[in-house]
Amino acid sequence: xxxxMTSNKSLSLRAVLPLAILVVLSIACDDVTSHxxxxxxxxxxxxxxxxxxxxxxxxxxxxxxxxxxxxxxPDIQITEAPxxxxxxxxxxxxxxxxxxxxxxxxxxxxxxRTDVWYVQPYIASSDTSINxxxxxxxxxxxxxxxxxxxxxxAYNPPSKTRKLPDVGGQVLAIALxxxx
Length: 180
Known about the structure:
Layout: H1 13-35, E1 52-54, E2 75-80, E3 91-99, E4 106-113, E5 117-120, E6 127-128, E7 135-141, E8 145-152, E9 160-161, E10 171-178
Antiparallel strand pairs: 1-10, 2-3, 3-7, 4-5, 4-6, 4-8, 5-9, 8-10
């Protein structure tokens, strides 16, 4: 491509080059900024269907492990919440969706709240895998409220806790649902 340096009617290389650099840097900075934004936790955790909270993961994930990485934020939803109850005897299904992550690197951890939050369905088997389509399903003992946490595979949940962990680090997103 030829640029005429002597005419005022033609764009000079000196004018085009800084504009091209500015456009490239703007796109690169915008891409980095979109990966570093966070959504705060909802003010009303009892809202149904479950709201989710998310913060950026260390990598920019995608829903399926074979897809190219995308700029979506980690997100988890509870689409099926069990009824209200308590105790060690009755178990029902909790289910939902996860997105914005490489499912090969993540899992779901479910908690049910009665007097405190208890990891579900059992202390020794609290990991719930995420299907290729982003759906997940688990058994849970009944409670008054349910939480689903989208976490990295290395995350080791407590067996019970008074307060759920904050989103950040290995905890990528949290969804809450009140028992039906």
